[in-house]
Amino acid sequence: MTRAKLVGLLLLLAACAHQGATAPSVVGHNGMVVCTEPLAAEAGLEMLRAGGNCVDAAVATAFALAVTWPSAGNLGGGGFMIVRMADGREIALDFRETAPAAATRDMYLGPDGKPVPGRSTIGHLGVATPGSVPGLCTALARYGTLPLERVLAPAIALAESGFPLTRQHVAALNYSRKLLGTNEETKRVFLQGEQRSVQPDLARTLKRLAANGEREFRDGETAKQIVAEMQRGGGLVSAADLRDYTVIERAPVRGSYRGFEVRSMPPPSSGGVALLQMLHMLEGFELRSMGWQSAQARHWIVEAMKRAFADRARWMGDPDQSPIPVDAMLSPAHLAAQRASLGDRASTPDAAALPLQREQPQTTHLSVVDAHGGAVAMTTTLNGSFGCGVTVRGAGFLLNNEMDDFAAAPGVPNMYGLVQGEANAVAPLRRPLSSMTPTILLRDGEVVFVTGSPGGPTIINTVLLSILAHVDGALDAAAVVAAARFHHQWNPDRIAHEAGTFAPAQRAALEDRGHIFATIFDSQGDCHVIQRDPRTGRLHGAADPRGGGRAAGW
Ligand code: DON
Fold first, then answer.
1. Block means of pLDDT (10 residues each) for the chain, length 554 residues?
2. What is the reported pLDDT for 361?
3. Distance of CA 364 from the midpoint of ligand 1 (Å)
4. Which of 153, 163, 182, 202 could be stapled to 396 by a disulfide with Cβ–Cβ 3.0 to 4.6 Å?
5. 68 CB less than 6 Å from ligand 1?
6. Distance between Cα 447 and ligand 1 center (Å)
7. What string of H, E and C letters represents the secondary structure of 321-386?
C-alpha cells in the first residue's frame, strides 16, 4: 500500500470512529427507501425500480413491514403520512385509529376514579378502530401509480414463504414475551421459534385484500374476523366502526427554519406544531456558530422542548372534536412570546415530577424519495410494542392499543408519563393525540430532507435533533442519524438522554444553570433520513444505527 493510500485509510477509520463507527450513507440517484427492516426497504425499492413513485414505494414498504416487523408495522394500527409529490402537491394523510362509537370517557377508570392499570394497554378493550389499511389503500389510489396487488406482492411473498428472523426481531419478541403470552392466537402465530417466520394466515388476509381492496377491511371476511375477535374478548370495535372509518386528508403544518421550509403533521398529531414551535424558538440563536452540540446550544434546545411540550399538554387533541388552537399556537405573537421567555436559567414545570418510561421497540418510520423528487415521510404504529397483544384469530395480524394515547383521566400520566388535557379525553369516534412527526424539509420548493422516528413523545425531539443536525450541524445522513439524542417533555422536569450524550463538563455546566439529569435511555428513537441535493437529485440515505434498518437506493 502506498503511503498516500495508508494515510487515506487511517483518515477514513478515524472518521468512522468519530461517528461511532456507523455505516456510511447510501447514495442513490433514482430513488431511496429507508426503514427499520431490510426486506421491507427492498420491497419499496422494487416499486421504484418498476417505475413506481414515492407513494407506491411507501405503501409497499408499509405492507411489508406489517409482515416483517410485527411489533410496529401493521394492518391493525394506524399512522400518518406526509407526502410531497414531484408536481408540488402536499398532503398530510391521517389514518389514525379512532375510538369506537361505544367508547366512554371513564371506560378506563376504576370505582376510585383512577385509571385501572393495563385496561387501556393489554387486551381487547385497548383497541381503537384501525386505520392502516384504509389509509394505505387511499394513499395508493389517490397518489400512487401501481395497482394494489402489485404493491402487496412483496408482502404476500414474505408472509407466505417466510423470512429469517433478525437479531432485532428476536429482541423485540423477547422484550414483549409476557404480553405475547397473554393471547393464545398471538402465541401460536408469533412465538413459533426463533429462526424463521412463516405467516400463512396473514398471507391469506393480504391476498384477500389484493383481490377485494380496502372493502376487505370494511365489510369483507377480515372485517368479520375483527368483529368476532372483539366479541370474543370484550372489545368495542364494531362492524359499523370498521365500515365507517374515515381517512382524512389534511394540509400539512407549514413553517420555516433558517431558509428551509418545513412540512409536518397537524393534529391529531402534536408533532408538527411542537416541532415548528421549537424551531422558531431556536432560530433566534446562532446554534451553528456556538456549536449545535455545545452546552449553550443544548440549554436553548432543552428550554424550547419544555415550552412546546407544555403547550402540547394544555391544548392538543383531535381537531375534529374540539377546536385545537393551531393558528394561535403558531401565531407570530405566541411564537415571539415563547422565544422571549427563554432565559439563561433552566425554567421549571409548574406540576409535580412524574416518572418517564423506558422506550420499547414500537412504532416505525419510513422515508422515501423517488427519481422525480417526490417524497413520503410515514410513521405507523400499534402504539405499544405488538399493540394490545391480541391477534385476530385466523387473520394473522395484531391489534393496536392506541386507546392508551387518550388521557384516561385528564391530568393523569399515560404509559409514556405524558400528562394531557380535556381535548384528549376519551370520546366516541375521537382520534387520540399522537406524537408521530413525519417531516419533510424543502429548499426553494424542492425536497431536501425527509425524517421521522418512533419513540412515543421522544419522537418530536428526535425529529427536532435530526433537523438541527442537518441544518445547523451540516452533517451527512449517516452522521445525522448517529448523533447523540436527549429528551425533555416539560413534565417531569428531567433531561432524559442516551449514555454518553453529555460529557461530564457539559453536564456540570448545564446543572449549574438548573437543569436536572435523570433517566438514561438505552437508545432514543429509530430515525430514518434521506438527504437530497436539489441541483443533482443525488440522494443520501441512512437508517438509524440503533436499529437494524436499511437504506435501499439505486
Ligand atoms: O402516536 C403516538 O404518539 C404513540 N402511539 C407512538 C408510540 C411510539 O412511538 C412508541 N415507540 N417507541
1. 38 38 88 98 98 98 98 97 98 98 96 93 98 98 98 98 95 94 97 90 98 98 98 98 98 98 97 97 97 98 95 87 88 91 84 39 91 98 96 98 92 75 91 97 97 96 98 98 96 92 97 90 94 96 97 98
2. 55
3. 9
4. 202
5. no
6. 26
7. CCCCCHHHHCCHHHHHHHHHCCCCCCCCCCCCCCCCCCCCCCCEEEEEEECCCCEEEEEEECCCCC
The pLDDT assigned to 10 comes to 35
Backbone angles phi, psi at 55, to 5 degrees: -75, -40
Amino acid at 432: P
Nearest CA to ligand 1 atom 8: 456
Q: What is the pLDDT of residue 20?
A: 46
- Residues 92, 326: Cα–Cα separation, whole Å: 15
- Tell me how far apart the alpha carbons of residues 247 and 224 are, in angstroms, rounded to a whole number: 20
Task: Write out the three cell numbers for 196.
Answer: 424463521
What ligand 1 atom has the least distance to the C-alpha of 402?
5
The number of domains in the chain is 1
Known catalytic residue: 363? yes
Which of 121, 363, 364, 379 is labelled catalytic? 363
Residue 545 maps to a domain: no
Find the farthest-apart pair of alpha carbons in the chain and give their distance in angstroms, rounded: 78
Cα(371) to ligand 1 centroid in Å equals 31
pLDDT at 360: 55
CA–CA dist 376, 93 (Å, integer): 11
For the Cβ of 277 lying below 6 angstroms from any atom of ligand 1, the answer is no
Q: How far does residue 501's CA lie from ligand 1's centre (Å)?
A: 23
Residue at 521 is within a domain: yes
- Nearest CA, atom 7, ligand 1: 456
Mutate to test the pocket of ligand 1, among 459, 527, 528, 546 (most ligand atoms within 8 A of CB): 459
Q: Which residue lies with its CA nearest to atom 11 of ligand 1?
A: 455
The residue assigned the cell 371476511 is 221
Domain that holds residue 299: 250-362+437-534
At 444, list the grid cell: 426553494
Q: Quote the Cα angle for 260-264-267, to 5°.
A: 145
476 lines ligand 1 (CB under 6 A): no
pLDDT at 353: 31
pLDDT at residue 120 in the model: 95
- On whether residue 317 sits in a domain, the answer given is yes
DSSP string, 123-163: SGGGPPBP-HHHHHHHHHHHH--S-HHHHHHHHHHHHHH-E
Q: Give the Cα-Cα-Cα angle 49, 381, 114 (nearest 5 degrees).
A: 175
For ligand 1, mutation pick of 358, 436, 527 (most atoms within 8 Å of CB): 436
Report yes or no on 519 lying in a domain: yes
Contact 381 CB / ligand 1 (< 6 Å) = yes
Any atom of ligand 1 within 6 Å of the Cβ of 269: no
Q: What pLDDT score was predicted for residue 350? A: 55
CATH number at residue 529: 1.10.246.130
The angle formed by the CA atoms of residues 527, 532 and 538, to the nearest 5 degrees, is: 125
- Give the C-alpha separation, 47 to 60, whole Å: 7
404 close to ligand 1 (CB < 6 Angstrom):
no
